[in-house]
TrEMBL record:
Comp. bias regions, Basic and acidic residues: 24-37
Domain VWA-like: 294-417
Membrane-traversing stretches: none
One Pfam short name: DUF2201_N
Protein name: Metal-dependent peptidase
InterPro entries, per database record: Put_metallopeptidase_dom, VWA-like_dom
Superkingdom: Bacteria
Putative metallopeptidase domain span: 43-286
PANTHER family listed in its UniProt record: SLL7028 PROTEIN
Record region (Disordered): 1-37
Coiled coil (UniProt feature): none
Length: 440
């Protein structure tokens, strides 16, 4: 009996028990004809949904007109997402959603752009921040549309709250992050770099830039002005939101957090975070060999005592995620009355800090004491009625002024704790003069 050649028989041999057969990996492919037809159908549906929104929610629809809707079939984009110029939707995902859901998702995407969520993240933990942003948008749209998908993140407690406020609440109550799911993908630029079995050439998002984020804020204000001229005032919640963007303010905690995050950031390679998220809402990845050196000067005058506990608690929260911290804390009146150096394991002592001194008047001894080992930044809690050096030091200084305080010097950055906010330009100015990180 003739036998087949060994090369032929090899293909028919059974795989030995306990071993998986090795199949060649399939090459990525573009959408097939059936998927292309689905793309075209969903594209038409989404454009029709946008037109219907113009009658029902004209303000949101006007914003949505500034995004190009692009239906795709791509494994890398399971739901929807936007880069600020295009709104990409997975055709298979949208085909499973109701008409109301589709309109909600389109509106959801454009409000991420209008609210500038990408530029507001700073150092916050990405997953929790994404959920906070969805809560903010969904609460706004639920109030405007009277509808929210059943599987979306929504709770009436968050109506009127910013993503930053919601983020802080989610950090305090992690279980609330599990009540629903996100409807979209927030970092589609990264998704586009990943491999996939079906890769649609139409899925080509652009990187989100700070300029693009600022442009969206300007578009929102301009669209609101046009809407008010043609159709009267905006609904109450939208009016409040637009007014906030017309006259933006940055919380003082965000100024401090932004500086610290930027000083630890850059293009370095980060390790996993050293600690759990902190109550202040800032997430800082850790890096071995990096030391954050921060000096804190506390004016011992009576006006500062009221704000001191909250101020130090916020500072502890901001620093709590840093892998290595050197904190130089000084009380002063006419001289330095108390000085202690704290490291990351001692930050809890800030919550029980008690000032020593009889009323602040001269911060110059603080600057003298720092000459031999300058910090990366000096943060001074004061009412401003103090003597200051005539020249600037070689590092940034942040004056945190208590209620009724005055600007103590013509240099440094001033943050009024009363009202808790500063101009956004102040944050940019501070980061412009930030020194490079010291290595320990």
């Amino acid at each position: 009996m003739s036998r087949r050649p060994l090369t032929e028989r090899a293909g028919s041999m059974r795989t030995p028990p306990g071993q998986r057969s090795r199949r060649p990996a399939r090459e990525p492919r573009a959408p097939n004809d059936q998927e292309q037809a689905l793309k075209q159908r969903i594209q038409r549906q989404c454009e029709a949904d946008r037109a219907l929104l113009m009658a029902a929610q004209p303000f949101t629809a006007r914003l949505l007109m500034q995004l190009a809707i692009v239906a795709v079939v791509d494994d890398r984009l399971p739901t929807a997402g936007t880069d600020g110029e295009s709104l990409f939707v997975n055709a298979k995902f949208m085909a499973r959603r109701s008409e109301e859901d589709r309109r909600f998702i389109l509106a959801h995407e454009v409000w991420h752009c209008a609210l500038g969520h990408h530029r507001r993240q700073l150092g916050r933990e990405p997953d929790t921040w994404n959920r906070a942003c969805d809560y903010e948008v969904n609460s706004l749209l639920r109030d405007e549309l009277g509808y929210c998908p059943a599987d979306a993140l929504y709770h009436r407690r968050y109506l009127g709250q910013s993503a930053e406020q919601i983020y802080a609440d989610l950090c305090q109550h992690p279980s609330r992050s599990e009540q629903g799911s996100v409807l979209d993908e927030h970092d589609i630029t990264t998704l586009a770099t990943l491999p996939g079995q079906v890769m649609d050439p139409d899925f080509n998002p652009k990187p989100v830039t700070p300029e693009g984020a600022r442009a969206w804020q300007q578009r929102l204000v301009a669209t609101a002005q046009q809407f008010e001229r043609q159709q009267g005032s905006l609904p109450g919640h939208l009016q409040t939101l637009v007014e906030r963007l017309r006259h933006p303010q940055v919380p003082w905690q965000q100024v401090l957090a932004s500086f610290i995050h930027q000083s630890l950031g850059g293009n370095r390679q980060w390790l996993p975070p050293a600690r759990r998220h902190v109550h202040s809402g800032l997430y800082l990845p850790s890096q071995r060999s990096q030391i954050l050196t921060l000096a804190v000067a506390v004016d011992t005058s009576g006006s500062c005592q009221r704000d001191l506990p909250h101020f130090l608690s916020e500072l502890k929260g901001i620093l709590g995620a840093c892998d290595r911290v050197r904190l130089d804390v000084m009380d002063f009146d006419a001289c330095i009355t108390q000085r202690r150096t704290l490291h990351e394991g001692q930050l809890h002592e800030l919550e029980h800090w008690r000032c020593q001194g009889g009323g602040g008047s001269d911060i110059r001894p603080v600057f003298t004491a720092l000459e031999q080992a300058p910090p990366q930044v000096l943060v001074a809690l004061t009412d401003g009625y103090i003597h200051t050096p005539s020249h600037t030091p070689g590092y940034p200084v942040i004056w945190c002024l208590t209620e009724g305080g005055r600007v103590p010097a013509g240099w440094g950055q001033t943050i009024p704790l009363e009202g808790g906010c500063v101009r956004p330009a102040m944050l940019d100015d501070l980061l412009d003069v930030m020194p490079p990180m010291r290595r320990g």
